[in-house]
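Sequence, please.
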């Protein structure tokens, strides 16, 4: 059967109908009856042949009518990230008013070039019957392999109804764009980076201010004016009130777009690191600012975190793009660049809380930390 597979691959487009084993056996029976009728001139065999051909024609007509008038839709959550399985809903509606559709299989089609056609669904659904004018919803799990804009989701509808002689197929593409954010799944290196930054911000948050932060044990040489006497009497040890600073420190994340095509794998790692750190810090209530050569947005003052994630979902390399001058607005900075030494020369990362992240010395996609002093270590 290799010749048949080769013919299917060379056929323009996809074959909309495939003969099954049952159909091949039935076709063989038609050939035998035809030979018998012609050679014997038996009227009964001609009647049987006519009935068999009628059944074959009715099977093709009903199969085509079964798939006609079906409308499929994929209901996705508003925010999607790469490589994370999320719940979605497939809605299949029979637009035919009176005629039901039977034995419908729904599968996701594989992705084409430029992420086109990827439905994110790698399973299969079976609908035994869909009455006329009725929409049926089924929950599924979808997973998109990478960040970016998915311009369409293609599904394949198949049926072998009514007699199973052939499998009729229809490809349906949903023509609305879906933005998939970079992967936000916890990663040991990114998690450690986010936790260390959050710890520094918490230490900064404790300080002079008017908003109560917490009650903690008294430390040596502290002023007695903040002692909480009720808590002291309750715990039988000195307790002091601690207040939060009036304004939290902002974290600046700078993503350098200047990288060569052979550094594409590291650039994807940098994008995911920026997305994860920004998302995790925003979840814990910290202010984040993302900067590149073409983008500058602070969350939540100028937009929310999803504006940042949407930009990171679509950003690409810009070889030769010059980085801006150093940002003095915050001493807490995360700098991701394929050329960390160039950022250091522009006075980026001069603060005590700055981290310059670049490729390791072997040129692999693992991220390494370069301090202002020039030393490096793996995250």
């Amino acid at each position: 059967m290799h010749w048949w597979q080769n013919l299917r691959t060379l056929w323009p487009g996809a074959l909309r109908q495939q003969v099954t084993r049952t159909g091949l056996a039935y076709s063989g029976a038609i050939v035998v009856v035809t030979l018998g009728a012609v050679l014997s001139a038996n009227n009964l065999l001609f009647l049987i042949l006519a009935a068999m051909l009628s059944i074959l024609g009715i099977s093709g007509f009903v199969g085509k009518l079964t798939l006609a008038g079906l409308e499929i839709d994929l209901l996705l959550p508003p925010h999607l990230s790469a490589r994370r399985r999320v719940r979605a809903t497939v809605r299949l509606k029979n637009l035919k008013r009176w005629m039901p559709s039977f034995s419908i299989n729904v599968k996701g089609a594989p992705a084409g070039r430029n992420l086109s056609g990827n439905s994110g669904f790698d399973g299969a659904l079976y609908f035994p019957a869909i009455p006329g004018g009725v929409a049926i919803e089924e929950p599924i799990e979808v997973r998109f392999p990478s960040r970016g804009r998915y311009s369409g989701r293609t599904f394949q509808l198949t049926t072998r109804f009514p007699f199973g002689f052939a499998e009729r197929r229809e490809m349906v593409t949903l023509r609305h764009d879906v933005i998939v954010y970079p992967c936000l799944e916890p990663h040991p290196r990114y998690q450690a980076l986010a936790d260390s930054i959050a710890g520094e911000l918490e230490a900064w948050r404790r300080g002079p201010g008017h908003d109560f932060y917490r009650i903690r044990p008294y430390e040596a040489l502290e002023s007695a004016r903040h002692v909480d006497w009720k808590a002291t009497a309750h715990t039988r040890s000195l307790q002091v009130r601690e207040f939060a600073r009036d304004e939290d420190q902002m974290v600046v994340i700078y993503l350098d777009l200047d990288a060569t095509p052979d550094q594409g794998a590291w650039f994807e790692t940098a994008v995911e690191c920026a997305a994860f750190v920004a998302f995790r810090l925003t979840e814990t209530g910290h202010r984040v600012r993302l900067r590149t050569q073409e983008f500058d947005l602070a969350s939540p003052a100028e937009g929310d975190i999803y504006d940042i994630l949407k930009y990171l979902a679509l950003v690409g390399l810009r070889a030769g793009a010059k980085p801006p001058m150093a940002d003095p607005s915050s001493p807490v900075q995360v700098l991701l660049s394929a050329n960390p030494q160039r950022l250091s020369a522009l006075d980026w990362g001069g603060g005590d809380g700055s981290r310059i992240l670049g490729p390791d010395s072997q040129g692999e996609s693992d991220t390494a930390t370069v301090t202002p002093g020039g030393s490096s270590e793996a995250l």
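The longest strand covers residues 206-217.
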